[in-house]
Amino acid sequence: MKVLIVDDELDVEQLYRQRFRKEIKAGELEMMFAFSATDAMSVLAELAPMDIVLVLSDINMPGLTGFDLLKFTKEKYPHLNVVMVSAYGDADNMNRASSLGASGFLVKPIDFTLLKEKIFSI
Amino acid sequence: MSNSISFDFLIKVLRKVFLFQNLPDHLVKQLSESITTQEFEAGKAIIEKGDEGNAMFVIISGKVKIHDGNEVVAEINEGNFFGEMALLDGEPRSMSVTAIEHTVVAIINRNDFFNVLNDFPAISKNIITQLTRHLRAQNDVLIAQWRSREKELNDLVEKRTEELANKNSELMLVLDNLKLSQQQLVQQEKLASLGQLTAGIAHEIKNPLNFVNNFSQLSLELLEEFKELTDETERAEILTDLKNNLEKINNHGKRADSIVKNMLNHSRTRNDDKQLADLNKMSDEFLHLAYHGMFANNPDFSCYMKTNFAEKLPKVNVFSQDISRVLLNLFNNAMYAVNKRKKLGVMGYEPSVSVTTSTVNNCVLIEVEDNGTGIPETMKDKIFEPFFTTKPSGEGTGLGLSLSYDIITQSHKGKLSVESVVGQYTKFIIQIPV
User: What are the structural domains of chain B?
Assistant: First the structure.
């Protein structure tokens, strides 16, 4: 199972890799990282075969936002699950995410137990 | 001579005149024969200042005033004479003479007067005495006038001085009020920008705190795991992770600390000392604070942020909270401008705000550039004026750039300038001497 994590904070990579250490080690999960929406778009475009099952994206990023990425992903790869992450869990953001086709919305700080469930329920 | 006045009467009058007191009878007669008389109604001018002086006058009846404009030098009545001075020196009349009441004068013209003088030089003494009297009288009048003017002038000076002192204390009061208002406005502006920042700050603190929490929690779990493990390679791996995590915790803790410090710095009343500051670090932090502040108030907002920091930028002695306000203000403006342009909805527009630092001629330069709406040429002169704002009412205080300008040019002896092309870009350049 392959997941793409998109966040402008570089340290999320080390954090996620440790949080999912066991799963990664056991070969149950593979993680890729992109540090901007534009990066994520090129990662997705270069992937063949498209074996990614989930994109986990921060909303508030410099340049293109998580919403831009969500729109782009849903248009180009409608089968991909996109879960949005934000420090702001207000109704506006949540409604917007779901209307653009997000399959979930997580508020920071991330509850990793919940995230794990979400990933493995796919 | 005039018909209305008898010859004998005229002789009588002339005899009474001081000038002709000791003139022999035949000369008085001779003079009387050549004399003409003239009548003047009250208010009529007998002599005008500046006239040619070709006769002198003896008052037969009535009263006249000798004056220069409104300035009356003397009033004289019958038996007195006037106009002899111009006759003697041939200069134009130096005073005017006007009848105060119905007046009859005897006119002695120049030739007749000089004939008498030739025939009887003794009257020269009378003339001199008379002239001296006139001059003394005139002198006294002038001195009195001068004294009264001097007094008037002194009184006026005293009055004006008092008025000025009053005005001065009024102005001092106004100035005090202004200073107070200014302080309040500055405080208001600080609070306004702080309010705008709050969301950005919350976000900027929350992010590192999340990392601190996550990495410390992970480390605890790693420690538990470490206790169970026996394999040395695995244990070494965990130790490396632990070390990394502790470094992350430390970094993010410092990051949060620095943000809180900046925030406190920003709102605190200024302390009097300049401190050495790393302007790269400050620019970076406030760029992100401004970004998150904008985003929190405006969920659609986003822009690219580019930083080009000079590697060996010297530290500069600055009032750091003041400089942070300038930076924040410039970043906020830049982001406001790119957002405004983005809202025009032109395809392919990529909002971008960049900050570049460099050292030029012993000055540190901070350039804040945006590709927003731009500033029209006609507004460039006004943007640094207090209360000038293009934002809708209630959104801007109009003080941001004017305060920034004062901070850079006055407290730091630097320069703040702007370059802009409408629809293309705006660049503010801060220049601070090292």
Answer: 7-121 (2.60.120.10), 272-434 (3.30.565.10)
B90 dihedral zone (left: phi>0; alpha: psi -120 to 50; beta): left
B371/B306 Cα distance (integer angstroms): 12
Q: Is the reported ipTM for this assembly greater than 0.90? A: no
Residues B219 and B246: beta-carbon distance below 8 Å: yes
For B133-175, the pLDDT digits (tens) are 878 877 888 888 888 889 999 999 999 999 999 999 999 999 9
* CA neighbor of A110 nearest in space, from A86, A91, A80, A92: A86
Of A60, A68, A109, the CB nearest to B210: A109
Shortest distance, CA B214 to any CA of chain A (angstroms): 7
Given a contact cutoff of 8 angstroms between Cβ atoms, the answer to whether A54 and A83 are in contact is yes
Interface touch A63/B210, C-beta < 8 Å? no
Is there a contact between B207 and A9 if contact means CB atoms under 8 Å apart?
A: yes
Helix crossing, A12-19 with B123-228: angle to 10°?
Answer: 20
B241 in contact with A at a CB cutoff of 8 Å? yes
**Beta bridge partners of residue B114, listed in sequence order:** none
Residue A3 is encoded by which pair of tokens? 């997941």
Which residues between 9 and 28 in chain B have a beta carbon less than 8 angstroms from any beta carbon of chain A? none
Q: Which domains does chain A have, with CATH numbers?
A: 2-111 (3.40.50.2300)
CA dist B398 and B380 (Å) reads 14
Q: Residue B194 in contact with residue B263, Cβ under 8 Å?
A: yes
Determine whether the interchain pair A63/B303 forms a contact, defined as Cβ–Cβ distance below 8 Å. Answer: yes
Tokens 């990051």 locate to: B255
CA dihedral of residues A32, A33, A39, A40 (deg, nearest 10): 60
Q: DSSP secondary-structure letter at B20? A: G
pLDDT-derived band of residue B425, with 50, 70 and 90 as boundaries? very high
Contact A62 B296 (CB under 8 A): no
**CA pair distance B334, B371, nearest whole angstrom:** 8
Q: What residues have CB less than 8 Å from B215, skipping those under 6 apart? A: A15, B245, B246, B248, B249, B252
Is the distance from CB of B46 to CB of B97 less than 8 angstroms? Answer: yes
> What does the block give as tokens for A118?
């979400």
> How far apart are the C-alpha atoms of A27 and A30, rounded to whole Å?
7
Contacts with B282 (C-beta within 8 Å, 6 or more apart), sequence order = B262, B320, B323, B324, B327
